[in-house]
Amino acid sequence: MITVSVVDDDRMLIEGLAAWLAEVPDVRLIGRATTVPELLRTEREPADVVLLDLLLGDRSDPVANVRRLAGLGRKVLVVSVVTSGDMARQMIGAGAGGYLTKDHDLPALVAKLREVAGEELAISPELALGWLADRDGDRPVLSPQERAVLLAYASGMTLAAAARSAGVQPGTAKNYLERVKDKYRKAGRPTYTKLELADRVREDGLAT
């Protein structure tokens, strides 16, 4: 069962979403709010995924919203009417696990929720090609979890300490690092050691 909380100030959309998700056996809506602070105050328990609207009525900074949630270890799927690959990159860079435009149907939304819950990077299909074409060809796209473990480990932490910092088990952290190394290898930048990982963090500006 994947639990979801939604942050959106469109009450009609939220009510419709609640009705739709009631028909999905493995997804349950447990929280709803119009702002991120309201969600954090009222949520009875942290949901597996936060479904976050990009532009909220309180005019809060979308990047700050994602960073606040990601900083608490929350998995975030941003949804928006904004069909911009650059905006999607900003949200992923801030720590979101995915970005979906609002012109998709419920099955597409549920699929992306499952991907984010499963710690996969989830991007709207129509943005994916542009994302890959626009980004630097030798700079891999890392999931928020891969990036968190990489930053902790490359900063000098042991694998066990990096795993604790990222909120995962050591075995999971090791798998993330292997994925990161594989992505750099496929990008033509072979990376094997901790020092080389630290070099990639510096070269790609991942710590900023």
From TrEMBL:
Annotated InterPro entries: CheY-like_superfamily, Sig_transdc_resp-reg_C-effctor, Sig_transdc_resp-reg_receiver, WalR-like, WH-like_DNA-bd_sf
UniProt keyword annotations, A-Z: DNA-binding, Phosphoprotein, Transcription, Transcription regulation
Modified residues (4-aspartylphosphate): D53
Entry-linked SUPFAM superfamilies: C-terminal effector domain of the bipartite response regulators (SSF46894), CheY-like (SSF52172)
Superkingdom in the source lineage: Bacteria
One Pfam family here: Response_reg
Domain Response regulatory: 3-117
SMART domains hit by this protein: REC
Annotated protein name in UniProt: Response regulator transcription factor
Organism: Nonomuraea longicatena
